[in-house]
Amino acid sequence: MSNDRLHIVRRAVLEIEDGMNVNLGIGMPTLVANEIPENYQVLLQSENGLLGIGPYPIEGAEDADLINAGKETVTAVPGAAYFDSAESFAMIRGGHIDLAILGAMEVSEKGDLANWMIPGKMIKGMGGAMDLVNGAKRIVIIMEHVNKHGESKIKRECTLPLTGKQVVHRLITDLAVFDFTDEGMVLKEMVEGVTLEEIKEKTEASFTVSDDLKPISFKE
Predict the structure, then answer these.
(1) Which three-class secondary structure state does DSSP give residue 171?
(2) Domains, the chain, ranges and CATH?
(3) Are 51 and 45 in contact (CB under 8 A)?
(4) DSSP readout, 155-175?
(5) 108 - beta bridge partners?
(6) Three-class SS of residue 127?
């Protein structure tokens, strides 16, 4: 994992509070599981029917029958529960998930989210994202600030099919942290060594700067 991705993951962990029920999206968000403090009582939920996901298994100790929603092998913590997808989505739709940390392809300045498909590319389906962005109490998105072509992934308007409209509460990238408020998108933190001019140059969306802008902090 690159340092940028590791820093994003470690900043995302700071969004988790002791006692939360948390859903981690497919991709980079799943890496958050390995960074949660050991003294935290956090239950990680997966749409395919597991509450109590543990860290990734060590090599050679994988159980092919124990997987997350992304079909990756995982572990289960003591006290974990297994159930069907209907029960899992009842938890999500019923507002029992405190926090969802998801990846994204694009986020708009209004907090719109596009994270499930690119037109013309083969997809397996939307998965649980559409339900999570409407059912979880708080939505935090983690992603790189720009795509592989150097283009901003933070848009005035999303160009890809939406997962949800005005659903993002906080966005964490390799450059900065933004919040989405009634007044618009607000820059809250930025990585030390990164300038405000660089963030503006790499952000298509319009945003304001918080009065208490602070250096981004990473969990060590």
Answers:
(1) strand
(2) 3-33+85-215 (3.40.1080.10)
(3) yes
(4) ESS--SPPSBSS--SEEE-SS
(5) 155
(6) coil
C-alpha to C-alpha distance for 126 and 142, rounded to whole angstroms: 18
Decide if 187 contacts 208 (C-beta within 8 A).
Answer: yes
Q: What is the length of the chain?
A: 220
Q: In what order do the strands lie in the sheet with 106-108?
A: 113-114, 106-108, 154-155
Residue written as tokens 């690159």? 2
**Active site (catalytic) residues:** 47
Entry pTM: 0.93
Spatial distance between the Cα atoms of 50 and 85, rounded to a whole number of angstroms: 9
Contact status, residue 45 vs residue 69, Cβ threshold 8 Å = no
Of 142, 144, 129, nearest to 170 (Cα)? 142
Return per-residue pLDDT of the chain as tens, 220 residues: 578 899 999 999 999 999 999 999 988 999 999 899 989 999 999 999 999 998 888 888 899 999 988 888 999 999 999 999 999 999 999 999 999 999 999 999 999 999 987 766 656 666 789 999 999 999 999 999 999 999 999 999 999 999 999 999 999 999 999 999 999 999 999 999 899 999 999 999 999 999 999 998 654 4
